[in-house]
Amino acid sequence: MHDDEPDPFVDELLEASLKQYRGEEPRSGLEMRILAGVRTQERATRLHWLGWAVAVCAGILAVIALTLHFAPTQLRQPTPSASLPQPATTQPAPPMVSRQQRLLSLRRPAGGVHRVATRRSPPEQFPTPLPLTEQEKLLLAYFNKTAKPDSIPGTGENSAGGLEIPRIIVAALQIEPLDDSQSEQGK
Amino acid sequence: MIDAGQVILSESVSTTDASGDELEATVREQARLVYRIAYSVLRNHHDAEDVAQETFLRFLRQRKRWAEIRDRRAWLAAVAWRVALDRKRLPAEVRLEETAEVVSKLRADGAAVDEIAASRQMMSLLERLVSSLPLDLREALILSATEELTSVEISEVLGIPEGSVRTRLLRAREILREKLAALLEHKHAR
User: Fold this and answer.
1) Whose CA is closest to A136, among A148, A144, A147, A127?
2) SS3 call for B176
3) If chain B, 190 residues long, is cut into consecutive pieces of 10 residues, what is the mean pLDDT of each piece?
4) Do B35 and A26 touch (CB under 8 A)?
């Protein structure tokens, strides 16, 4: 057969074969099977995500519970605190104060110590007390030797050499008795 | 007694009732198209149904974008096409000479064209010839062979102009005709 004369049988066979090539009709109930499969898989996926969500929430709750459980215990734990060196003089032992407060008191003049002591002190745990350094110890010893205890004006301790405050003289008040006649006229 | 998990699940299912109805309607309308496209690629009923199910599952998961999908039919066809191609295995090896010989014998015995075309040997021969086509021609021919999609829809699935689809279809048929003629003439001449 020549190439320029196509065989009609081949054309017909090809067309018929291509029609067959599309395949048979799907089996009955295709839609129901697809819907059932899709819903089953979607439900499984949803449960999978739900399981993950529950697991993550449980983990977060566990972390929060553990944090709350251990946090007060840590606060109650004693922290190392440094005691001030005992001065050579007979001064009473200073109360336990934080390092910041101690440094502040060291830097202030003698007259200001009293004001610092009367202030509301910060919590003892913050900042964490630490032992004094050698330089701080030396500075404290110097102050203990040179500085004198607070003097309260007007007390006996001040009379030795403290600041003289002139006495204020207030004239005695004289209150005259009320006159009954004047009060009746007012009515 | 109903536990918390069941309550959550029942609520989540009830919120998807609207989309479930729409899904059901879409499956009833387009299941055949999706199945045919999958079958045209995979040539297997079970695989084609699996692909159809996967396609509608992806469609359901895109429920928030349903309003944005302009042509739902073309969208489903494209997804089915891609999923089927991902699952496609290599076709079984078919001895072209042997199958062509059987077809020639059927012709010589006076079998009708439709009878020959429906034979298992002819189907195997055609599958082998189609799989030997260049990819671009094969894709257009397979989608066309489903007889479910217009050339415009095929062009949307393949992402090419409609004119290119027509050109590829003509070229694919031409190649198939030449190869089939060569095989049958060779056997017929014996």
Assistant:
1) A144
2) helix
3) 42 56 88 90 88 92 85 90 84 70 79 81 85 89 84 89 93 91 69
4) yes
Residues A76-108: tens digit of each pLDDT? 555 555 555 555 555 555 555 566 666 666 555
* A34 close contact with B: CB closer than 8 A: yes
Class of domain B4-87: mainly alpha
In this model, does residue A61 exceed pLDDT 90?
Answer: yes
What Rg do the C-alpha atoms of chain B give, in angstroms?
Answer: 22
Calculate ∠ Cα A85-A90-A95, nearest 5°: 50
Q: Can you tell me the distance from the alpha carbon of A163 to that of B146, in angstroms, rounded to the nearest whole number?
A: 114
Supply the range of the domain harboring residue A91: 79-148
A65, A90: one domain: no
Max CA-CA distance within chain B? 81
Q: What is the CATH number of domain B96-189?
A: 1.10.10.10
Q: Which chain A residues have a beta carbon less than 8 Å from that of B145?
A: 18, 21-22
Tokens of A169: 């003289």
Place of tokens 């739900």: A50
Helix ranges, A108-167 (H): 113-118, 134-146
What residues in B contact A41, CB-CB < 8 Å? 53, 57
